[in-house]
Amino acid sequence: MGVREILLAPERERYAQLPKARAMSPDELIAELQAANLRGRGGAGFPMGRKAALIDRASPKPKYLVVNADESEPGAFKDRQVMAEHPHRLIEGCLIAAHAIEAKDVFIYIRGEYLAEYEILQAAVDEARAAGVLGDVEITVYRGAGAYICGEETALLDSLEGRRGQPRPRPPFPPVQGLYGAPTQVNNVCTIATVPAIVEMGAAAFAATGVPSSPGTAIFSVSGNVVRPGNYELELGTPMRELIYGLAGGIPDGRALKAVIPGGSSVPALTPDEIDVPLDYDSLQARGTFFGAASLIVVDDRCCMVQLALRSTKFYMHESCGKCTPCREGTRWMVQILEKIEAGRGELADLDLLRSVGDGIMGKVLCALGEFAVYPVASYLAHWEDEFVAHVEQGRCPFEGSSSLEGIVAPSDTHAAGSGGRQAAAAGGAG
Asked: Within its chain, how far is the Cα of 317 from the centroid?
């Protein structure tokens, strides 16, 4: 296991695998993708080939391929690098995947804040169109408006249709009834960009890399308290310790590791004695966490876990679309409880109340956003409950202003302050 580049490898010849893929029938191509066992790199890990096989290609309706480039998970920045440095690799993957499901329209839904990447990707699409590479397929690059919820596939589809991005009840699932009510395949940027490598290597060779349950490579975004933060493409199954202490250089200034959040801010954290784990879907799930967006946030011993819980929960409260009552109200209650504890006004009963509110969200929402607010906080309570208790018993934050998060303004606080200022100005003007 270790470094192996597929997604970030230097380009040798653009669109070299496209003729080979188009010479295959859709059934043959889908069979190859299924044999490769490429699992979705966006978070859920659902096999791409199986998802393609679910598309109702016999439907008289159009078939659509949608690429989820709405990379908004805190800690994730892998898709951004692929789009900026290898846009033609992504486009080739789009064209091959479109051939597999017999789609003539491809939509790449890109995060609104990724302006530079949007311009690069749009220029690459225009270049491919001018070169005649697209054939009878049209690729549209569509900019989102900066809503985290639109990373959820059905909310993304609503947004793409021009409506407010909110999750849809399921079933029906997108392969049966997706964009404009037609069969739709939705995949992440890194998933689609891996497809040309499968065609080039062959399914058997691809499946032999990584681990049997999770073949291939993944780009891991590493941020937080490490010497060398950045993106690292590794074979799946590479030990987490090797990534953090080897490639990323370990913890700066000789400080102690306190926690690793392995899949972006929405997943349960691991303690220092839990990082000897292979980086693949099943191994991480066996440790009680998730592969998620393959985005490791490394936390050293200066961090107050109550502050970290509050910061995380504020983000999900702010990004909740409000459609589901448990998520809309529950995330706000969690923030209020955590603010009370951090301010030194908490009671021990508040810890049980925090757990109870989380239980009221889990499994009772249309999408996972509400659960994403609960997972990290529940893990912080489970592993670092002594810090929560210390806040209560001492009537203050025990870090006394020395936490690494102290004084760092959360983006959601900035939005709230701006909203309050506008409301005050409006009230003054009305008077």
From this structure: 17
The torsion defined by the Cα of 344, 373, 308 and 389, in degrees rounded to 10, comes to 40
317's CB contacts (< 8 A; 6+ apart) are 331, 332, 334, 335, 373, 412
Its pTM stands at: 0.93
| Calpha distance 241→238 (Å, rounded) | 9
The stretches of 150-298 forming alpha helices (DSSP H) are: 153-160, 189-201, 203-207, 240-241, 281-286
**CB of 248 closer than 8 Å to CB of 298:** yes
Is residue 159 within 8 A of residue 123, CB to CB? The reply is no
358 backbone dihedrals φ, ψ, rounded to 5°: -60, -40
Q: Which domains does the chain have, with CATH numbers?
A: 18-208 (3.40.50.11540), 211-300 (3.10.20.600), 305-417 (1.20.1440.230)
- Rounded distance between C-alpha atoms, residue 274 and residue 288, angstroms: 10
Summarize pLDDT for 319-357 with one digit per residue, the tens: 999 999 999 999 999 999 999 999 999 999 999 999 999
Q: Are 190 and 7 in contact (CB under 8 A)?
A: yes
Phi-psi domain of 350 (left: phi exceeds 0; alpha: psi -120 through 50; beta: other): alpha
**Contact (Cβ atoms closer than 8 angstroms) between residue 214 and residue 61:** no
Measured CA to CA, the distance from residue 429 to residue 431 in angstroms comes to 5
- The CA angle 333-336-341, to the nearest 5 degrees, is 125
